[in-house]
Write a structure and sequence with these properties.
Order of helices and strands: EEEEEEEEEEE
Distance between the termini: 37 Å
Largest sheet: 7 strands, mixed
Helix content: under 10%
Number of helices: 0
Shape: globular
């Protein structure tokens, strides 16, 4: 059983929107802080956004602040990333991450492509 499964990626024109989802299973989702990371070709994986276990606090990378919104639904064991005003530089594989006191999980990633 894969603990984190991302979905919602795809090809979108610059200026468009996508919503990514991360479905969790096999662990107590509501106890874990969650986050999104991304990795572009030839680059290291980088932080995008994270959200506290209860959803009351969120942080964003400067590059996505004001354009992306992270959220979670603990009743559905799912985290989301609403991505607006997408740019070519947002092209990457997006990964979701769960962490609790040093114990963590990674998803397998979903591709987002924004042609220039």
């Amino acid at each position: 059983q894969v603990p984190l499964v991302e979905s919602g990626g795809g090809l979108v024109q610059a200026g468009g929107s996508l919503r990514l989802s991360c479905a969790a299973s096999g662990f107590i989702f509501r106890n874990y802080a969650m986050g999104w990371f991304r990795q572009a070709p030839g680059k290291e994986r980088e932080f995008v956004a994270d959200i506290s276990w209860g959803g009351g606090a969120a942080n964003y990378a400067d590059s996505v602040k004001g354009r992306f919104i992270i959220s979670r639904d603990n009743a559905k064991n799912t985290m989301y990333l609403q991505m607006n005003t997408l740019r070519p530089e947002d092209t990457a594989v997006y990964y979701c991450h769960a962490v609790l006191r040093g114990n963590d999980y990674w998803g397998q990633g979903t591709q987002v492509t924004v042609p220039s």
